[in-house]
Design brief:
Blueprint (H helix, E strand, L loop, with lengths): L2 E7 L5 H4 E2 L2 E2 L6 E6 L5 H8 L17 E6 L4 E5 L10 H17 L3 E9 L6 H13 L3 E6 L7 H17 L7 E3 L8 H9 L8
Parallel strand pairs: 4-6, 4-7, 7-8, 8-9
Antiparallel strand pairs: 1-5, 2-3, 5-6
Bound molecules: guanosine-5'-diphosphate (GDP) and magnesium ion.
Length: 207
């Protein structure tokens, strides 16, 4: 597990200085964007995959308003930790700012390979998730799904039920349920599979 913090994009005004065509800070590795509701487990997943304590894990949803980039050396890619959406107290203006910021990044980064949408294994996709997934679809970026915190599904029947529901929801959104991973950053279940999938990812499963 070797990873390294690369850079933070805090503001739209920094975008052009930071990203030039296929390069971010002069680095040309393909980018994987982590998208998801605040508190869904994005930072924990980055820590579990890329390197211990790289990303800040928080109990205060909505704290991160920046995009943090990490070099995932093991697989030669760069992970972008996007600000979470749907924090409880967000105003209309905050949501608009989120969308504008994310959209600008997504449209500027020519080497963005995939958006990994994190969903809660227990109850995703929620209506807010669906909104975000639609938004990503419009931008034309390929999407894969990760159901996080799978350890919270305790029984076999609970797991089976959720997988069925989730597959149906993903199909309804126009995606192939095969594009979904089930993981736990806590128990590390499913992480190897996810890593393998992302390492070998080359545009498969575009929307
Ligand atoms: N049970 C369980 N809890 C998790 C898991 N991943 C994250 N959490 C918890 O969920 C909360 C939010 O995690 P964080 O990674 O900061 O979410 P983010 O806001 O999406 O970056 C923290 O309290 C974590 O400890 C997991 O795999 N299983
Ligand atoms: Mg986070």
């Amino acid at each position: 597990m070797a990873g390294e913090f690369l850079v933070t994009l805090g503001d739209l005004s920094q975008l052009d200085g930071l990203i030039k065509g296929r390069f971010i800070r002069g680095r040309g590795e393909p980018r994987i964007a982590m998208v998801g509701r605040s508190n869904v487990g994005k930072s924990s997943l980055i820590n579990a995959l890329v390197g211990t304590r790289l990303a800040q894990v928080s109990n205060q949803p909505g704290k991160t308003r920046c995009i943090h980039f990490y070099q995932w050396k093991d697989i030669g890619k760069i992970v972008a930790d996007l600000p979470g959406y749907g924090f409880a107290k967000s105003s209309h203006e905050e949501r608009e700012r989120w969308e504008k910021f994310i959209r600008a990044y997504l449209e500027t980064d020519e080497n963005l390979e995939l958006a990994l949408v994190l969903l809660d294994a227990r109850h995703g996709p929620t209506p807010l998730d669906v909104e975000a997934i639609r938004f990503l679809s419009f931008t034309g970026i390929p999407v894969n799904f990760v159901f996080a915190k799978a350890d919270t599904l305790k029984t076999q029947s609970e797991r089976a039920k959720r997988r069925k529901e989730a597959a149906q929801a993903i199909r309804q959104l126009g995606f192939d349920p095969e594009l979904a991973y089930w993981v736990s950053s806590k128990t590390r279940d499913g992480l190897k599979e996810l890593e393998r999938g992302l390492a070998t990812y080359a545009g498969v499963g575009a929307n």
